[in-house]
Specification:
Blueprint: H1 5-20, E1 26-29, H2 40-49, E2 55-57, H3 70-86, E3 92-97, H4 99-110, E4 116-122, H5 134-139, H6 145-152, H7 172-178, H8 182-185, H9 194-201, E5 206-211, E6 228-229, E7 235-236, H10 242-245, H11 251-257, E8 260-264, H12 277-284
Parallel strand pairs: 1-2, 1-3, 3-4, 4-5, 5-8
Antiparallel strand pairs: 6-7
Helix pairs in contact: 3-4, 4-9
Length: 289
Amino acid sequence: MRRSPLLLLLLQLLLLAVVSNGYKPVIIVHGIFDGPKQFENISAFITKAHPGTSVKVIDLYDDLASLKPLWKQVQGFRKAAEFIMRKAPNGTHLLCFSQGGLICRALLSMIPNHNVNTFVSLSSPLAGQYGDTDYMKSIFPGCMKKIVYKICYRRSGPKVSICDYWNDPHHRSLYLQSNNFLPILNGEKPHKHMEEWRENFLHIKKLVLIGGPDDGVITPWQSSHFGFYDSNENVVEMKNQEFFRNDTFGLKTLEARGDLSVCVQSGVKHTHWHSNLTVFMNCIEKWLT
């Protein structure tokens, strides 16, 4: 039986609708000194691989505004993310780059009954930052990593985002005492919401950690996989970190569930992660269905 062109077109449109409706919206949170423009490539990768996917790059705290204190940024990003989530009853995915990965961790901890299926952390300083990088020098001109703690750990110090995750391994006690962002997220600093935040974080179905040795900004680069320096600046891997062993925010549970994926990519500079097709195909694409 011969089918009319109109009938074939209708069948194709119906098939496209069925396929596209199967993909959850992707919420993207940018990093320091970034904004939506930097994520045009990865947005295109997503929609090409998964046609019909709604990709939302949250347009808040762009460029220099990304230096605002992270708790302040979390408030704004939370409102925007919850608005998107309410319109996606079948769930969402969260893809967060660099500093944005820390903002997203706060969102996943604080939002009760969020509907994030996969959290992709793309080269984020999840265990902190400690390095002489161009980014650091642009924020603290003339400063070396060994003295940044004198700025970040002072009560009267500048309220800039990088101080919220500056983790000086030679001044551990000061870090825990003065930093009211990252140690709280990692459960290294006890607080009244620990159990609630852990439960909220564990609502995700998959955690994808992406980073690599040629990043050039995240220091040590293993921080993108929850590794960090000890007091001798030797890297302690994720599974040997106290917050993993004590399962303070659910990381060990995710690993035990089989819901933790670690992807290492060599040859990728920090500002290229979100525009590198190989990274997308090897580390991200299969998790955004």
